[in-house]
Amino acid sequence: MAIDAANTTTASQRRTGYRFNLTGWISLIVILAWALIAILAPYVTPHGISDIVDTDYFGPMSLQFPLGTDYLGRDMLSRILFGARYTVGISLAATLIACSIGVTLGMAAAVTGGWFDTVLSRFIDALSSIPSKLFALVAVAGVGSSIPVLMLILGIIYTPGSYRFARALAVNVNTADFVTVARLRGEKLSYLIRAEILPNIIGPVLADVGLRFVFIVLLLSGLSFLGLGVQPPEADWGSLVRENIGGLPFGSPAVMAPSFAIASLTIAVNMLIDNLPQKIRDRSE
Amino acid sequence: MNLHLLSLLGGRLLVALLTLLIVSFVVFCATQILPGDVAEVLLGQAATPEAVAGLRAAMHLNDPAILRFFRWLGGMLTGDLGISYANNRPIAELVAGRLGNSLQLAAATALFSVPIALALGITSAMLRGSLYDRSVTMATITVISVPEFMIATAGVLIFAVWLKWLPALSFARDVHSFGEMLRIYAMPVFTLSFVISAQMIRMSRAAVVEALNTPYAEMAQLKGASRPRVVLRHALPNALGPIVNAVALSLSYLLGGVIIVETIFNYPGIAKLMVDAVATRDLPLIQSCAMIFCVVYLLLITTADVIAILSNPKLR
Amino acid sequence: MSPLVEIRDLKVEATTDAGRRVEIIKGVSFEIAPGEIVALIGESGSGKTTIALTLLGYTRAGCRIAGGSVSVDGRDMAALSEKERAKVRGVDVAYVPQSAAAAFNPAQRIMDQVIEITRIHQLMPRPAAEAKAVELFKALSLPAPESIGSRYPHQVSGGQLQRLSAAMALIGDPKVVIFDEPTTALDVTTQIEVLRAFKSVMRQSRMAGVYVSHDLAVVAQIADRIVVLKGGEIQEIGTTEQILSAPKHPYTRELLAAFSPVARVAAQAAATASPPPQPVLELDAVSAGYGRLQPNGKPLMLAVDAVSFKLERGRNLGVIGESGCGKSTLARTIAGILPPSSGHIRFDGRPMAPLARDRTPEELRKLQIVFQSADTALNPAQSIEDILGRPLAFYHGLRGPARDARIDRLLDLVHLPRALKHRLPGELSGGQKQRVNLARALAADPELVLCDEITSALDTVVAAAIIELLKELQRELGLSYLFISHDLTTVQAICDEVAVMYRGVKVEQLPADQVGKAGGHPYARLLMSSVPKLDPSWLDTLERDPELVAAFSKR
Predict the structure, then answer these.
(1) pLDDT tens figures, A218-262
(2) Which element (helix H / strand E) includes C412?
(3) Distance in Å, alpha carbon of A114 to nearest chain C alpha carbon
(4) Which of C199, C227, C259 is the last residue of a domain?
């Protein structure tokens, strides 16, 4: 109430704009850098990804090979830069699948209500009670793990979470009087979703998209690490850890470097979500 | 009032059973989508068409899918888990010992991590905004953001390779003493604890913070109650439901974590069995393992719900 | 005698979203003598609760005491450490919260919470504390004083909880008690009981008190002196008599004027001049409720029970009653949100479908509803222009310049500057939002506007202005209003006739000035007599028929 006092004084001078802190900036730069690398992969790798460039395997970090070499003597940096393509690309596609289906269905269920909502929600609840890694294992066993299939599987696995999140938000907005007013005006479902519900939940939904992207990156890496995700000769970051795990007893950089790549991406996304630009709503004086 | 409580609990149980039915259907479908014939896979390249046809009939593969689903479900319910494709042994036999191993690992992890995680979560909620709170939050975000195998490999690198305190990647020897057992369990339990604690800390912190933001917590403060009293007497009892839920949910992350950890440490548990089964496409074994995981998960979640219902004074 | 509480040049700062510090209490000074009750009165945002809380050395999150002193019994609360403040809280200064329902911990028994102060400060052994609590329960005329403490908060009513929270504050024999709008959330008939209990306990104990409220009439009953606040500054301090009878400051006069709005007379004249009245809305034995239909055709929870009335064109009908009487359900039924379980609704002489989605666009257009809280009634993500433009496009197919011109005219109608149309609802004040809310209904060119508690969330002065606007709009546009409220004064100010509802039944319908007069329905009389008056002796001289109270109070 006290803060309210400052805000209700007549607005004469309004300062608008956004506040974005340093952590947010750094996170954003890291994310953009990985996105750029994923797009430009073939042009930025110092060595060919399948060229055996070193006579030694599990070579240490050196000027020539900044991240050492892998179990066959290939340049690790090039392989990680190229791996960004698979990790970021597959995860992004899966995130888009999960969130576009989940959010649309979630809003529709919240606004429609009735048996449509009940049946759909019950089914989705059941789906989300299958642990994600397990779901992925079963699905990969059933349908294999080519890249389009991986995108689809990961997308389907994370649709229930997105649905539940969007529905919970939409149910909340749906009870607001302005939606009732629009309904009493005679508005149709598509208008209610587009104009009344979505604009009021878009912030949290976007944050959830980011979070889901992180989950998907982790699950994809986990699958590849088990040898059930991206298949050789193609290699994402998870596969890179798997193929070089033999270097662990020697403390080879080839084992930890891809893990750090994953961590840099996922931590950056999480940090960005926690430090999103904040709109300045300061109208006192 | 009590009748209402009973019906609520009965409802939860019914939902859990219905969920299990849907889950089993999904698991069955997912393993049956792929074209290609199990009988051909089993008999290999050299199989004659007659042999394939005979095996198909013997395995009831010609029946409609829905019939096979109910036959499979019936088998599950009566404890007949079927025969493994890979080595022709009954699945129940394969699973039995492995399940025990996994449960041991899970129990050790839970005993180790739940008290520590709750203590960290609740104290950081009490000291909200302090350096301690911010470091805990930062650490949990980091742990949540990295893959489990990274924690495991980093642990091996530090404790086994550099410090040489613990055995690295093998479980292939018999345990003779308590000390040896500790050393062998240390890495898997340590890794798993890291993974599930992060979630538990986050969620229990959020639950307590929410309870501290209520008018009744403010009222307690205005009565002159000390900070610990506000937390222990007023916030915690009301945060109990969400905290139990957080614990259950985090323990369910064990299932995911255990898949990676058993593989990386070569631990003879049920998750390792399942990963191997996926690699050999041993479908009956995969189905059984998946169902066991789902049952455990649902048990956890339903227990948490029941505790949350029972801890709500409005329903007492 | 030296003052018990002495506040000198108190300043409180709040931190805004942008991290800037804003002074919300701008140098306030007053004192309280032992045994004196001082009221802090003002609209929301005037800083009255913030000031009261500083007596406990407490500020809400984001705020801090930036200057001045708050001396309570010789100790400066602003200068004490948090640990020393905790020793004072509950013992020297106690707090009665605005919403007792939220301030009681749902997981603890009432007794444990009432005597918690004695446990924290180790004032007395537990049995003695419980005995004292029971004495307080009796003094506050709570039912079943011996056993009520063993219940959980959700098992007792709101009025009882409010009295229990007073017991919770008084258990430590404080020198000052702070009452933070303790009756605002209560119905008028319950409010009287609570006020009486507070007053008698305070009189017996000779404690000093700070009574925070926005309601002058309530304050008049209990306070010795009144401090009038606005925007974090004191406008006027005086004895209760002086403030009520001879206010000096213009703002105090404005507050008093808003309290007694001018009754509607114009419509009477208009009605006699017009041709024979024709009903715009007709309800015939309409029942509605929630839950499954029972075998007898009634819903499980019947909220509206066979209500009939006629509303003639150009006239206004008020519906009043206390919370839970079914008046809001009635509005929802007429609007087509909740279908009636039986009965018929006729609009413009034609029967109307029970559900809004089955009604014709013309019917939807002519019947508009305006909701109580403009905060939730306006989409926070749309500009005022879009909010007003949508019904224009939807009902009238207006586009481009024609639409813009109409939006400007609507804003003129509700006396809002045209420049406001580019703003979002969050950037408007409460009164401005309610005007936009009205303008949106007007955009449809309605014949009948359902007003559901539209002034209840507003400050007195702002509400009075909205009522004036409604009257003006009616004169210009020939509207009819169905005006739903719990506040009889507001309803009388705008309506020709008033229907009184009690437990879903319309107990009577009378011309506005006749309500509560002798000969009317006993419940209507009880309701009318419970509305606090500005006269300080009102509560003491008020005599209520105990049988009547017993028959109709909900407890």
Answers:
(1) 999 999 998 888 888 888 999 999 988 888 888 888 888 999 999
(2) helix C400-413
(3) 14
(4) C259
Number of domains in chain C: 2
C91:B225 CB<8 A: no
C108: chain B residues, CB-CB within 8 Å: 233-234, 237, 313
pLDDT category at B61 given cuts 50, 70, 90 is: low
**How many beta-carbon contacts under 8 Å exist across A and B?**
149
The answer to whether A4 contacts C394, with C-beta atoms less than 8 Å apart, is: no
Smallest CA–CA distance, residue B202 to chain C, in Å, is: 22
Q: Do C97 and B215 touch (CB under 8 A)?
A: yes
Is residue A4 included in any domain, yes or no?
no
DSSP letter for A231, please: P
One-letter amino acid of C3: P
Query: Would A249 be classed as within a structural domain?
Result: yes
Q: Which residues on adjacent β-strands are paired with residue C40?
A: C212, C227
Q: Which helix (H) or strand (E) holds A179?
A: helix A177-185
Domains in chain B, CATH or no CATH each: 2-34+81-310 (1.10.3720.10)
| Lowest model confidence (mean pLDDT) among A248-252, B16-20, C158-162, C359-363 | A248-252
pLDDT score of A281: 55
Do residues C501 and C187 lie in contact, with contact meaning Cβ atoms separated by under 8 Å? no
Q: Is C394 on the interface with A (CB under 8 A)?
A: yes
**Residue C422, SS3?**
helix
**Whether residue C293 is found in the same domain as residue C243:** no
List the domain range (segments joined by +) for residue A257.
18-55+64-278
Mean pLDDT of C493-506: 88
Assigned domain for A285 exists: no
Cβ contacts of A42 within 8 Å, gap of 6 or more: A82
Is the domain of C172 the same as that of C47? yes
CATH for A49: 1.10.3720.10
Nearest to B150 among A259, A270, A271 (CB): A259
| Contact status of C63 with chain A (Cβ, < 8 Å) | yes
Do C293 and C186 lie in a common domain? Answer: no
pLDDT at C168: 92
Contact (CB<8Å) A133/B259: yes
Strand pairing class (C316-320; C367-370): unpaired
Q: What are the tens digits of pLDDT across the range C372-416? A: 887 889 999 999 999 999 999 999 988 889 999 999 999 998 889
- Considering the domain boundaries, does residue C113 fall inside one? yes
Please report, for the domain that includes residue C401, its CATH number.
Answer: 3.40.50.300
What pTM value is reported for the model? 0.84
pLDDT at A216: 95
- C193 and C297 share one domain: no
Identify any residues that bridge with C287 across adjacent strands, giving them in sequence order: C342
Exposed e or buried b per residue across C296-329, where buried means at least 16 C-beta atoms within 10 angstroms of its C-beta: eebbeebbbbebebbbbbbbbbbbbbbeebbbbb
What is the pairing mode between strands C350-351 and C342-347? antiparallel
In a domain, A226, yes or no: yes
Domain membership flag for residue C357: yes
Asked if C157 and C250 sit in the same domain, the reply is yes
Contact (CB<8Å) B224/C87: yes
Chain B contact present for C49, CB below 8 A? no
Q: Which of residues 156-215 of B touch C (CB under 8 A)?
A: 214-215
The reply to whether C56 touches chain B by the CB within 8 Å rule is yes
C-alpha A68: how far from chain center:
29
Q: Which residue of C has its CA nearest to A202?
A: C381
* R_g of chain C, CA atoms, integer Å: 26
- Tell me what pLDDT residue A47 has: 82
> A19 — contact with chain C (CB < 8 Å)?
yes
Structural domain total, chain A: 1
- Rounded distance, CA A152 to CA A189, Å? 28
Question: Would you call C154 an interface residue with chain B, using a CB distance cutoff of 8 Å?
Answer: yes
| pLDDT value at residue A17 | 66
Structural domain contains residue C149: yes
Does the beta carbon of B77 lie under 8 angstroms from any beta carbon of chain C?
A: no
B223 shares contact with chain C (CB less than 8 Å): yes
Q: Is C549 contained in some domain?
A: no
Are residues C73 and C205 both part of a single domain?
yes
Domain of residue C70 covers 5-259
Query: Which element (helix H / strand E) includes C302?
Result: strand C299-312
